[in-house]
Amino acid sequence: MLQRTLSIVKPDGVSKGLIGEVIRRFEREGLRVVALKMVHLDKEEAKGFYAVHRGKPFFESLTDFMSSGPVVVMVLEGEDAIERTRKIMGATDPRKADPGTLRREFASNIEQNVVHGSDAPETAASEIAYFFNALEIHSH
Ligand code: ATP
Ligand code: MG
Question: CB of 93 closer than 6 A to ligand 1?
Answer without folding.
Answer: no
